[in-house]
Amino acid sequence: MILDNVEQEAVSLARQLLEEAGVWDSEGDLKCLVDRFLVRANKKQALDEFMIAVDERCNRIPLGHIVGTVAFDEMSLVVGSGVFIPRAHSTIIHKWLGDIQLGRGAQVLDLCAGSGAIGLGIARRRPDLIVTCVELDEVALQYLSRNIARMAVKGIQARALRADVHDTSAFSRFAGQVELIVANPPYVPEGLELLPEWNSHHPPISVYSGGDGLELIRQIISLGVDLLIPQGWLVIEHGEEQGQAVRQLFEQHGLTDVRTVVDQLVSDSTGSSVISVGRRSTKFSNQGAEINE
């Protein structure tokens, strides 16, 4: 890509402004903004829009909310104000998926799906699975439905379901039928100060979850053990410092093979990429009581 002198000066200024604003991946964001706004036929309009976008980013509006899309696991997903922007952190789930065996036609649930990134990524890699992306928030559900339709054009198939993970009756059709449940729920303790991108410009419902950040995780684990088949997998993304607490919750619900996985290759300066995984035991009920066989 060749930029003229005026464009090069604009890029240099933008780099300085982004760095001064404390944007955590200023060079990566700058590259995306250049690609989005400067390779255009109408150069004056492109320059005007580019500098407006730089100003918005300096005000710490998330990049995905500015450009309207995010690249995730070789997919271009639509995002915008009101929906959590998926991060590369979540691809740890897809890498882990390559290490386990799932049968053809297995049911998969992506809970707290947001824009659908995790579920669609699974469907892209494993088109033989039946993937349902579950979301409650109406705004996020619109992005989810749109992304499912967009990816269907590429042969990636998934379903959308509006449901509250607190409403167990909404999942009655899946009881004892699901081989894999994945979730990237909100897991930040309420009151914890974050970077402005998440603290001010993401919907709080997609970021915060109770005083310890584990409120929704508890509910997902409780729901999950009712929905999973024996030896079915539960995978939850969370903060690195929450690993021990999440493992304890898994074990309290009778899950086995429990472990926490950290992948520094898809981590960044905002934190580590972390999941905890476990399997539903054939010997424990939802309450953790042993079942006589």
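the 2nd protein, sequnce then structure:
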Amino acid sequence: MPKFTKKQLAMIALILDDEEKKFNRTKKTWVRKMFTARKFVGEFHTLFKELEDEEISFYKYFRMSQSQFYELLTKIQTKIQKQNTTFREAISPKEKLMVCLR
């Protein structure tokens, strides 16, 4: 059985610790990086604000007026709304409706 010096044992321990951290880091990833930036670059958060300002563009995009959209949203909101958890933020009913209609 080979004998190691204290320095060699310390180096082995550091290497094993690094490997363990790498393994645990990938294991804990719940949400992909592209989805974490959804609030900044996602279609809902960028496009919807612009569509609300222009009624004609809103109608062309959704094939319904804003009043119809919000009426539909109020009818189904309680059925499709989820609560936020400690792990991730729920998708809003407005965003779900936009994706469904599009």
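The mean pLDDT is 84. The chain has seven helices and no strands.
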